[in-house]
Amino acid sequence: MRPRPALLACLVLLGAARAAAPVLTVQDAWVRVTPGADVAAAYLTLHNPGPSAAVVVGVRSSVAGHAMIHETSLRDGVSAMRPHERLTVAAGATVALAPGGLHVMLGMLAHPLSVGEHVPLELLLEGGATIAVSAVVRPLG
């Protein structure tokens, strides 16, 4: 029995739709305003609804000269920040980028950020996919 062309076309479209589905979902993206500074931190929550791990390998923003994932840690009472080059989100897992831990560091800001402004972020995933995010600027408090 030969498959019908219409059935084959449906299967190809279904496969393409599944391939185009987002690997990660992003919630509660925000940036803390930093008056007088040319750096800011962005926070968000990532969820991986997929069946395999997703890896964030970079971040870009049109309002920053550079952006990268950092991790803040406390050692012997001293806060330290270091780059976190690859962020793996396991299948079914949620990872929060929050104050005092993982965050996106935005440097060389093009202009001072204002409360209520939306900052564009682009998460770069292993394999070449990207996720566009809009993070709202919140006040310091």
Give a written overview of the molecule.
Helix content is 11%, strand content 52%. With 141 residues, it is mainly β. The protein has one domain: Immunoglobulin-like (Sandwich). Strands 1, 2, 3, 4, 5, 6, 7, 8, 9 and 10 form a ten-stranded mixed sheet that branches. Strand 9 (118-125) and strand 10 form a beta hairpin. The model is unreliable at 5-20 (pLDDT under 50).
Gist?
The protein has 141 residues and is mainly beta. It has a single domain (22-138), classed as PCu(A)C copper chaperone (Immunoglobulin-like, Sandwich).
By CATH, the superfamily comes out as: PCu(A)C copper chaperone
Question: How far from one another are the termini?
Answer: 68 Å
Indicate the overall shape. globular
State the name of the first-level CATH class.
Mainly Beta
Rounded mean pLDDT score: 86
The amount of beta strand, in percent, is over 45%
What structural class should be given to the helix and strand makeup?
mainly beta
Low-confidence stretches: 5-20
Count the domains. Answer: 1
User: Could you give the count of β-strands?
Assistant: 10
CATH architecture: Sandwich
Q: Would you tell me which CATH topology applies?
A: Immunoglobulin-like
Our Rg estimate from Cα atoms comes to 19 Å
How is the main sheet built?
10 strands, mixed
Assign a percent range to the helix content: 10-25%
**Helix segment tally:** 1
